[in-house]
Amino acid sequence: MTLPPRMRALLLNDDGYSSKSSGALLEDMGSYVTLGDIEVPEPGPSQVLVKVSVAAINPSDVMFVKGLYGQPRQKGQPAGFEGVGTVVAAGAEPAAQRLVGQRIAFPTGRSNWGSWAEYAIAEAAACIPLMDGVKDTDGAAMIVNPLTALAMFGIVKEEGEKAFVLTAAASQLCKLLMGAAREEGYRPIAIVRRDDQIPLLEAAGAAHVLNTTAPDFADKLAKVMKAEQPRIFLDAVTGPLAGQIFAAMPKRARWIIYGRLDPETTPIPEPGQMIFMHKRVEGFWLTEWLRASPPERRVEVVKEAQKRFIDGRWSTDVTAVVPLEEAVAKVPGELAKPNGKVFITP
Amino acid sequence: MTLPPRMRALLLNDDGYSSKSSGALLEDMGSYVTLGDIEVPEPGPSQVLVKVSVAAINPSDVMFVKGLYGQPRQKGQPAGFEGVGTVVAAGAEPAAQRLVGQRIAFPTGRSNWGSWAEYAIAEAAACIPLMDGVKDTDGAAMIVNPLTALAMFGIVKEEGEKAFVLTAAASQLCKLLMGAAREEGYRPIAIVRRDDQIPLLEAAGAAHVLNTTAPDFADKLAKVMKAEQPRIFLDAVTGPLAGQIFAAMPKRARWIIYGRLDPETTPIPEPGQMIFMHKRVEGFWLTEWLRASPPERRVEVVKEAQKRFIDGRWSTDVTAVVPLEEAVAKVPGELAKPNGKVFITP
User: Where is the signal peptide (chains A, B) (predicted)?
Assistant: First the structure.
């Protein structure tokens, strides 16, 4: 197969990190990436070159292009942490060679050759050959969200309480998590901002759905906390509302921050609760979880994710699949729509 | 020995907890306790009755009388968590009987018969018979501060980094902690609010002393953090300044809140650090530490504290010893003076 020398890709405008405070909402894409031409990369010995079919846009991608993610940007390189595609070239190692010709889900990790491009680079060991029943849009979102969902559900299970709290609960990630949790008898308390999300989330597995904009939110929150006694608070939002939820939680509550949709200052409303109620604030980062977990655990989780997509227990709600050439213009508007996922196709 | 039927004591004005936000500064004592008469209590089988010589005033007492501590107030009962005195009566159990006639340091714990009184009740098992070399003012402050200091120093040692950060560093507690830390080669970074505290804290064991009111505080803080890489932040203050210090700390920093001098809102200035730098916020409460630690550990720590006071490695800086009858009028003014401890004597 002959590869072209150059390709189209969404290239990072800036290097390193940003010092600007901002949330995970993509108000404008052209400030962060530019459509351009770049040479098609060559895979290293343990890597594969993937012809991208569909690439996902995750909240972590938005944070990354803004310079607010835990690894530095490299100006002029393609963005995009995951996608689905076909392996068209591979490094010398057998594990890489074995993948040539296969349809795979892939993470780009720290390769600096992201998935928002015609071709991307991935470590062979991290690629997942896809079974025939898996749709491209499911495969393109097979890694970041499912791994995060199952890893965080693992934290809930270790803590032992059946009930737990989720903000930004209408996200794909939370829907996957709630589905898995309900199967095992857990009771997600979903926090959302709109009434029309309530039936949707009840269907997705929530035991309670609370709307933060309802006038009786504080009362309802207090009642649900009292009845359910959740310990784990999985928070993608931060800001004053997250602080309010944490303050309403019972003894030994753990506020686990994994995203930051709200750029407002995040308060600890009652620091005395840290002392006398043994509450804690901590963070979750998939990269760190992967570093700290044994490789078998990752493989097991990825297998479980694929099975769930094939047998229909999980599915990806697609808001839009946007062509690469139109991404800068169209993605922010599509991302602003609630409840679904946006993809890019080269 | 004949005991009087009634005694003088500082009695709590209110029940339960307060819903008012407030710090650990005692702006006025009469709002919280009133000098009055009450019957002399009778010790239970495992308890002793102590004729109080000197009672301590700790920040935890101030939080307690304000209704901001982790256990509820009982209206009309005496306040005061620790003191020194002579055992004048005891319950039937041998461990209690053995203490009769002895001079002891005692915690009142949850007996509801505090030390700011002519007589107090303590659990025999928690009392410490004092050697002759120990002064009354050292004995009266033998339990809460030394145990907290050594328990928190234990957290620093477990974490492994030599440097650690302390706010309200001119407190008795911090001076004890820094003295113990310096002996073992640890490097306390002391945060204070006045230049005249700098030589004092250098003498007490601080490797660095930073004044938060200095115009170059942020710069100095950044430099010291870079050079020393502290992981543990022992914070008695909270509020925006504590948030600023935590944000300046390196990866895997743990903000351990054990007091709340500043009633201002406490922010987490960079929630992204919880995700990408694995930072955490938690609390320390001596009561919880005692509950979770094996009894041998408590005995060992108390023995070590007494040795340190006898051999002069530790000493208590006394600001004032105020008669019980004058406490309501005089204690707030004496507590407002920096660097020393205030005691009450019946």
Answer: none
pLDDT at A302: 79
Q: Which residues of A139-149 are buried (b: 16+ CB within 10 A; e: fewer)?
A: bbbbbbbbbbb
* The pLDDT of residue A25 is above 90: no
CATH 3.40.50.720 residue ranges of chain A are: 145-287
Instruction: Give the β-pairing of A232-235 and A163-166.
Output: parallel
CB A24 within 8 A of CB A103: no
Q: Are strands B6-12 and A341-345 parallel, antiparallel or unpaired?
A: unpaired
Q: Which of A18, A266, A274, A280 to mutate to test the interface with B (most CBs of B within 10 A)?
A: A274
Cα distance between residue A94 and residue A99, in whole Å: 9
Looking at residue A67, the DSSP 8-state letter turns out to be: T
Q: Looking at the structure, give the CATH architecture of the domain made up of residues B145-287.
A: 3-Layer(aba) Sandwich (3.40)
What pLDDT, on a 0 to 100 scale, did the predictor assign at position A152?
Answer: 95
Using the Cβ of A252 and the Cβ atoms of chain B, whether some distance falls under 8 Å is answered with no
Cα-based distances in Å from B17 to A239, B10, B23: 27, 18, 14
Query: DSSP labels for A217-280?
Result: HHHHHHHHHHHH---EEEES--HHHHHHHHHHS-TT-EEEE------S-EEES-THHHHHS--E
Measured between CB atoms, which of A272, A279, A283 is closest to B274? A283
In this prediction the ipTM stands at 0.89
Q: Which CATH class is domain A6-141+316-345?
A: alpha beta
Q: Boundaries of CATH 3.90.180.10 in chain A?
A: 6-141+316-345
Per-residue confidence band for A293, with pLDDT thresholds at 50, 70 and 90: confident
Q: Do A68 and B265 touch (CB under 8 A)?
A: no
Contact present, B45 and B96 (Cβ < 8 Å): yes
- For residue A112, pLDDT over 90 is answered with no
d(CA A285, CA A293): 12
Q: What is the mean pLDDT of residues A86-90?
A: 97
The 10s digit of each residue's pLDDT in A234-286 is: 999 999 999 999 999 999 999 999 998 888 999 999 999 999 999 999 999 98
With contact defined as beta carbons under 8 Å apart, do A40 and A4 qualify?
A: yes
